[in-house]
Amino acid sequence: MIDPKAIGFGTIDDIDQIAGKRGDRQFSSGQQEITAVLMEAFAGASTVVRGNCTFGMFSNHAENIDDALRQRAAARFLIDGPITQDDYIDILALLLGKRHQIPVGDHDLMRAQAMQKAVADSYAGHSRPAEAGLARVFDEVTRDFGKLETLAELGSYLHAIAMAEPRFTGRAVKNITDAVKARAMDFDMPDEWFETPEPFLHQPYACKLEMIEALRQPITTEMVVQEINRYADSEWRYSDSADEAAIEETVRGMERMAEAKRRFAGEA
């Protein structure tokens, strides 16, 4: 990962079990030390960005990750299991394999799982927030400004989100703008650029800039709104999940106490 001559993707699975949340006594000192190391490595005062590797943190309980560490994740992706009818047909066919004679039937296998279609549907789905709390903020802002079309209006939306959700900070804005820039630069370069150095590498800097400029996608207000909603939705989801888990645990404790009192009274 630290070799600048290599391109790598590092994975940290079950990050909520490995790195502890600061101030939570359920986590050991060792887990909290891992949190400190990762925070310093990912976006600390001595972090060196070489641009040759990306780290992915994976968790089924992202609400248990330290807020500051979670906010170092520039891009968030919700990876669900099968949801639609097509998803269940596809996963059944995939896991069952090919050593059977059961016909597929009226279904185009894996058409719904095409990466380009899935990504496009995902982005389009964030034109409006999915979480109820964020949707209320979005409705209030659009009621005041109408369709968000200027930096002032987009910034006002960000400010309204921050007022409603304290976890939404300036680092969130950086992550959102990084995601927007990454989408704009998501294109395939021509194969001939890599076959010989003359078509691209040996060109003057200004010419290279023009060649890349011709390939990149324009940054639009719709793209910015989608990335704001995608990031803010995740923060709302983590916050709601954490609150709901705490409430359920408290309710279970009260129910156990009530049952214990009833049994004690009956025995007495």
Verbal overview:
The protein has a two-stranded parallel sheet. The protein has eleven helices and two strands, in the order E-H-H-E-H-H-H-H-H-H-H-H-H. Helix 6 packs antiparallel against helix 7 (151-164), helix 7 runs parallel beside helix 11 (221-267) and helix 8 crosses helix 11. It folds into three domains: 7-73, no CATH class; 81-112, no CATH class; 114-268, no CATH class. The chain has helices at residues 15-18, 29-43, 67-70, 85-96, 115-125, 132-145, 151-164, 170-184, 192-195, 205-215, 221-267, and strands at 8-12, 53-57. By secondary structure, it is mainly α.
| Strand and helix order | EHHEHHHHHHHHH
How many helical elements? 11
- Strand tally, please? 2
Share in β-strands: under 5%
Low-pLDDT sequence parts: none
Biggest pleated-sheet summary: 2 strands, parallel
Globally, the shape reads globular
Oligomer status: single chain
SSE diagram, text form:
Blueprint: E1 8-12, H1 15-18, H2 29-43, E2 53-57, H3 67-70, H4 85-96, H5 115-125, H6 132-145, H7 151-164, H8 170-184, H9 192-195, H10 205-215, H11 221-267
Parallel strand pairs: 1-2
Helix pairs in contact: 6-7, 7-11, 8-11
Keyword list:
mainly alpha, 11 helices, 4% strand, 2 strands, 268 residues, two-stranded parallel ribbon, globular, 3 domains
In short:
The protein is mainly alpha-helical and 268 residues long. The chain is 56% helix and 4% strand.
